[in-house]
Amino acid sequence: MIKAVLLFVVGLVCLIKGGDWFVDGASGLARKFDLPELLIGATVVSIGTTLPEVMVSTMSALSGHGEIAYGNAIGSVICNTALIAALTIAVKPGPVDRRSLRVPVLFFYIAAAIYCVAAYVMGKFTRPMGFIMLGVFVAYMIFNVRAMKEAKEPVTEEEHSEEELPISKIMILLIVGAVLIAIGANLLVDNGTLIAEGLGVPESVIALTFVALGTSLPELVTAITSLVKGHGSLSLGNIIGANVFNLVLVSGVSVTLAPFAVPQSAKLWGVNASLIFEIPVMLLVMSILSLYALWKGRLSRMQGIILLAIYVVFCAVQFTL
Q1: How many helices (H) and strands (E) does the chain have?
Q2: Which of 45, 145, 201, 265 is the most buried (most CB within 10 A)?
Q3: Is 27 helix (H, G, I), strand (E, B) or coil?
């Protein structure tokens, strides 16, 4: 058990550092070809921060552990929203650009609707469903790129002064980052499963808490950095975008490669906990975060506190199932 825990931690470190280097390399590549900074943040960085989830979910599904792939997607959305975004809001609430949030929020609920159809109606995630999810991801990227081009801002002197990485260093960061992510994902899945079995805890619970938190650490780093630099709205946009990616890119890739049924490992009041607790909590926390922001055009400290309280209750309930 001690060895499994140590390897689990090593896997988390590899995921975090690998994701960090991959994002640095991808951002450097985008700057090399003079892509707008807004476009970099909306595409490269958001995809980069969800790479750990992609790798973990894909390898879980391929190794026959669909409950980890399923739980990781839902758990990451809950963690991103009710922990990471909530911490940012509770510390420093502020105004948000409602217009820039409309596309990510709309696509999140489209993705959530697809997820609900698979979970509540079909009871399984089929390969055609995976293709639909990936199609939504492509559509989201197209809409997002168009929106970013329309909102394109002139490059500032400060951005010009930023050091441009040589192409050799960019490629090293991309390759080494991708390798570390792959190694970390493998260690996380294998040892997360061993820990779950050793503790007698369902794999879905591990996926919804520890694995989801571990793979959401890149978003946490981004949120903290944005907060320190006074760009809270950037953090909010990245988190909502990452939530969309979790449901359509992360799940889409894993489902397309290895379809799986909705896990039945944990029950609440005799019913599948995923259907009456986990998915509803995911929709609840995203509604509290996004709908209030779209309605009021700002975020409140109480909003963050409520989301944090929900996350605490969510984790507590998970370990009683």
Answers
A1: 17, 4
A2: 45
A3: helix
Residue type present at position 260: F
Q: Could you report the per-residue pLDDT of 266-279, keeping only the tens digit for each?
A: 777 777 878 888 89
Q: Are 185 and 59 in contact (CB under 8 A)?
A: yes
Angle at 42 between CA 299 and CA 163, to 5 degrees: 110
Residue 216 has which token pair?
């959401």
Provide the angle, in degrees to the nearest 10, between the axes of the packed helices 232-245 and 217-228.
160
* CB neighbour list of residue 63: distance below 8 Å, 6 or more residues apart: 189
Q: Which residue ranges of the chain lie beneath pLDDT 70?
A: 27, 30-31, 34-45, 66-67, 148-163, 202-205, 207-217, 221-222, 224-235, 265, 321
Which residues, at least 6 apart from 12, have a Cβ–Cβ distance to it below 8 Å?
184, 188, 214, 217
Q: What is the pLDDT of residue 213?
A: 66
CA neighbours closer than 13 Å in the CB half-sphere of residue 146 = 8
Cα gap 108→48, rounded to integer Å: 18
- CA 83, distance to chain mean position in Å, is 12
CB 317 within 8 A of CB 267: no
Query: 260 has which bridge partners?
Result: 125
Domains and their CATH numbers in the chain: 2-318 (1.20.1420.30)
Closest listed residue to residue 111, CA positions, set 279, 262, 293: 279
Q: What is the pTM of this model?
A: 0.75
Separation of alpha carbons 14 and 20, rounded Å: 10
